[in-house]
Design a protein that fits this description.
Blueprint lengths: L1 E3 L6 E8 L3 H14 L3 E7 L2 H10 L4 E5 L10 H12 L3 E6 L4 H10 L3 E4 L4 H15 L17 E2 L2 E2 L3 H14 L5 E4 L6 H11 L7 E5 L5 H9 E2 L11 E2 L1 H4 L4 E5 L6 H13 L1 E2 L8 E2 L3 E6 L3 H6 L5 H7 L2 E4 L10 H15 L6 E2 L1 H9 L5 H15 L4 E2 L1 H7 L1 H6 L18 H15 L4 H8 L3 H17 L1
Parallel strand pairs: 2-3, 2-4, 4-5, 5-6, 9-16, 9-17, 10-13, 13-16, 18-19
Antiparallel strand pairs: 1-3, 7-8, 11-12, 14-15
Helix pairs in contact: 1-5, 2-3, 3-4, 6-7, 10-12, 13-15, 14-16, 18-19, 18-20
GO molecular function: ATP binding; sequence-specific DNA binding
InterPro entries: AAA+_ATPase, AAA_lid_NorR, CheY-like_superfamily, Homeodomain-like_sf, HTH_Fis, P-loop_NTPase, Sig_transdc_resp-reg_receiver, Sigma_54_int
Protein name: Sigma-54-dependent Fis family transcriptional regulator
């Protein structure tokens, strides 16, 4: 481990460089200090464990991590970056990877790295990237020569939030929207991948054409091809007329494939052929039609893991993964929690004709301290549930605790669970599912939309399941 001396210019911040090639790291660090407009104090460590020890003792503004040098910190890149994020105390993390390891770098970014650069490294380019990151993320101790200017954007094309992570996302959407290249959106459930897709369409040159969305997880596999590419009359039982698919309907506009990871492998090959040729053939038809669409896809799963598990074609991934956008989870932008909560409160109070106007201090503290595994959707559902269930002018912590059914369900039991009663009847899965859904409907006074929102499913799912329960009851 070695500490590199800063240059004679004014010292600004600290930079941690993780690279097992110490000689290369020292050269990079020295060149970086010369290239930056304000010279940082650079600390070089050879591996992930040394970095973790240093981070426990000191605070750094920037962490530059060679991904291969983190092997001693955790079994995989994702776990290693997650550990760095926890120790980093808000530092900007820049990953370095070989040019052929872009997918590995993207895994690092999903785990919390802010950006990555490919080897070989140009100190001047690296200094410029650091300055750009510091500018975007508004770090008070950042290594930027000039502070960010202008007010933060709080609302953008359906998104709400003024955190640095959202400012970067808004800027990314603005740049990417003008292109016709495919976009691959990743992010946890509830982060707003559908909002991002609509924003890309609305901000782009195809905004005057159709935006057609298709959820690959919600359509049965045997119907997915006809939904995507269309069907001709008589192609199968029930096909009474010619019908366009989503690809044709979106001609000239945008085709959004949500939950792309759920698409059947056999259909993935046909989608790949469509992307390569721009031609679609309806089910039951030999002739092909030329369509012009911009394809945007999204998934809440790790695409590289799906490829490894042979659930997703690698060639299709690289055809779609041209312009990647990752949506940050709500826990990584805590300053947006109350901004979102107030936004949802104003909307639902107006819709339900309630008098709610704000949150008590204890309620705000509870909201800001929550982990939000369901992200923005979970927060949105909670605020809507409170507005429907309670009356008043201010939401307090008691209302939050009473309405937060997700946290109650996830909380461990404070007492030892009883031994299983083998004499008790175990109901079939569909009857247990029926009981859960019907209890939710009763809780919301028969409002299926509200029950669906609380259960994080669509109202159509409830209607469909009710019909299937009736058929099962008749059959039994």
């Amino acid at each position: 481990m070695a500490r590199l001396p800063a240059s004679d210019s004014v010292l600004c911040g600290q930079l941690l460089l993780i690279d097992r090639e110490e000689r290369t790291a020292r050269q990079t660090g020295a060149a970086l200090s010369r290239a930056m407009l304000t010279a940082p104090e650079v600390v070089v460590v050879e591996g992930g464990r040394s970095a973790a020890e240093r981070l426990r003792r000191e605070r750094f503004d920037i962490i530059i991590a060679d991904l291969e040098s983190l092997a001693d910190l955790a079994m995989g890149i994702e776990d290693a970056i997650l550990r760095l994020v926890k120790l980093a105390q808000g530092a900007l993390i820049l990953a370095i990877a070989d040019g052929a390891s872009v997918s590995t770098a993207l895994v690092a970014m999903r785990a919390g790295a802010h950006d990555y650069v490919s080897k070989p490294i140009s100190p001047e380019a690296l200094a410029a990237r650091i300055g750009e990151l510091a500018h975007r993320h508004g770090r008070s101790r950042a290594l930027a020569a000039e502070p960010a200017t202008g007010p933060a954007v709080a609302d953008f094309a359906g998104f709400v939030g003024s955190s640095s992570a959202m400012q970067f996302l808004y800027e990314q959407i603005s740049r990417v929207a003008a292109s016709a290249a495919p976009v691959f959106i990743t992010g946890e459930s509830g982060t707003g991948k559908d909002v991002c897709a609509e924003a890309l369409h609305a901000q782009g040159p195809r905004s005057n054409k159709r935006f057609v969305a298709i959820n690959c997880a919600a359509i049965p596999r045997d119907l997915m091809e006809s939904e995507l590419f269309g069907v001709t009359r008589g192609a199968f039982t029930g096909a009474h007329e010619d019908r366009k698919g989503a690809a044709e309907l979106a001609d000239g506009g945008t085709l959004f494939l949500d939950e792309i990871g759920e698409m059947d492998l056999s259909l993935q090959s046909k989608l790949l052929r469509f992307l390569q040729t721009g031609m679609v053939s309806r089910v039951g038809e030999v002739a092909a039609r030329k369509v012009d669409v911009r394809v945007i896809c999204a998934t809440n799963r790790n695409p590289m893991q799906m490829i490894a598990d042979r659930l997703f074609r690698e060639d299709l991934f690289y055809r779609l993964h041209v312009l990647p956008i990752h949506l940050p989870p709500l826990r990584q932008r805590p300053t947006d929690i109350m901004v979102l909560a107030r936004h949802f409160l104003a909307r639902y109070a107006a819709e339900e004709h309630k008098q709610f106007a704000g949150f008590s201090a204890d309620a705000a503290q509870v909201l800001a301290g929550a982990e939000w595994p369901g992200n923005v959707r979970q927060l949105q559902n909670l605020i809507r549930r409170i507005v429907v269930m309670f009356d008043g002018e201010e939401i307090d912590a008691t209302m939050l605790m009473a309405a937060d059914i997700e946290s109650q369900a996830a909380a461990p039991s404070p007492v030892e669970p009883p031994r299983p009663d083998r004499s008790r009847q175990v109901l079939p899965m569909w009857q247990q599912e029926q009981r859960i859904i019907e209890d939710a409907i009763e809780t919301f006074g028969g409002n299926i939309s509200m029950a669906a929102a609380a259960l994080q499913i669509s109202p159509s799912t409830i209607y469909r399941k009710r019909q299937s329960w009736a058929e099962m009851a008749v059959a039994s």
